[in-house]
Design a protein that fits this description.
- It is elongated and about 45 Å long.
- Helices cover about 0% and strands about 55% of the residues.
C-alpha cells in the first residue's frame, strides 16, 4: 500500500494515519508476516519530538515507540521499519501506522510548508514456516 496524500494531526494521543494501512490473510497460522514500512514524517515546529508506532490490529509491534525528532520543520525525514511478526491466525489481519504529536503537529508526506514530499509505503510478505 502506497500513500502519497498528505496527512496531519495535532493529537497528543496516538491516532491512525488515515489510509496508511495494509491487510493480509495468512494461509497458515504458523506462517510469519514480514512487515516493511517506509514513512516520510515532518513536524510543525523546529526541534519537536513526535512519535510513531506500527500496529497489528490493536497490538503495538514496537518494543519502544519510534521517536520522530525534527530539527527543521520544513524538512521531511524517512523512517524505515522491518518487523518479522507472528500473527498466529488465518483471518484477515491489518497493519497500520499511528502517530502522536509532542506539541504543534506531526505530518506524513509533507513538511511544515504543506508541500507534498515523497510517498510512504507498507509492504506485507507472508513467509512459510
Amino acid at each position: 500500500n502506497q500513500k502519497t496524500a498528505r496527512f496531519a494531526t495535532t493529537s497528543t494521543s496516538y491516532t491512525d494515519v488515515t489510509g496508511y494501512d495494509c491487510s493480509i490473510t495468512p494461509t497458515s497460522s504458523s506462517n510469519k508476516i514480514l512487515v516493511i514500512t517506509s514513512a516520510n514524517f515532518g513536524a510543525g515546529a523546529d526541534g519537536q519530538n513526535n512519535y510513531a508506532r506500527i500496529l497489528r490490529g490493536s497490538t503495538n509491534l514496537f518494543t519502544n515507540d519510534q521517536s520522530i525528532r525534527m530539527a527543521n520543520a520544513y524538512h521531511v525525514n524517512t523512517y524505515v521499519s522491518i518487523i518479522l511478526d507472528s500473527p498466529n491466525t488465518t483471518s484477515a489481519t491489518t497493519y497500520k501506522y499511528q502517530v502522536k504529536a509532542e506539541s504543534n503537529e506531526v505530518f506524513l508526506n509533507r513538511g511544515g510548508s504543506n508541500v507534498t514530499r515523497g510517498q510512504s509505503t507498507i509492504m506485507l510478505l507472508e513467509l512459510s514456516s
